[in-house]
Amino acid sequence: MAQQPKQAAPCPICGKPAKAAYEPFCSKRCADVDLHRWMNDAYAIAGEPVDEESLSSLSGETGWGTAKH
Ligand SMILES: [Zn+2]
Questions:
Q1: C-alpha 25 to ligand 1 mean position (Å)
Q2: CA of 11 to the centre of ligand 1 (A)
Q3: Which residues pair with 10 in a beta bridge?
Q4: Cα of 9 to ligand 1 centre, how many Å?
Q5: What is the DSSP secondary-structure string of the chain?
Q6: Measured in angstroms, how far is the CA atom of residue 49 from the centroid of ligand 1?
Q7: Range of 17's domain?
Q8: Per the domain annotation, does 54 fall within a domain?
Q9: What's the pTM value of the predicted model, to 2 decimals?
Q10: Residue 40 CA to ligand 1 centre (angstroms)
Q11: Residue 35 lies in a domain
């Protein structure tokens, strides 16, 4: 058996071999993707979801359709 270098773990985002500079990802792009996913998860837990009801009540307060001629 030939000696094998330490096998780089595949990028968790796209599955390509990871690069040391971006470990455990293969590129900055994939690292950013993972970061955004993580942040979105954090927001989903910490922040309140914006539901359609609150959106429609907001637009109702702006007086859409009440303009006079
Ligand atoms: Zn990748």
A1: 5
A2: 5
A3: 17
A4: 11
A5: ----PPPPPBPTTT-SBP-GGGTTSSSHHHHHHHHHHHHHHHHHHHSPP--HHHHHHHHHHTTTT----
A6: 30
A7: 11-46
A8: no
A9: 0.51
A10: 19
A11: yes
Say if 57 falls within a structural domain.
no
Q: What is the pLDDT of residues 17-37, one digit of tens each?
A: 999 999 999 999 999 999 999
User: What is the whole-number distance in angstroms between the Cα of residue 35 and the centre of ligand 1?
Assistant: 13
Give me ligand 1 centre to Cα 41, in Å. 20
Ligand 1 midpoint to CA 16 (Å): 5
Number of domains in the chain: 1
Q: Distance (Å, rounded) from C-alpha 34 to C-alpha 45?
A: 17
Residue 32 lies in a domain: yes
- In the chain, what percentage of residues exceed pLDDT 70? 52
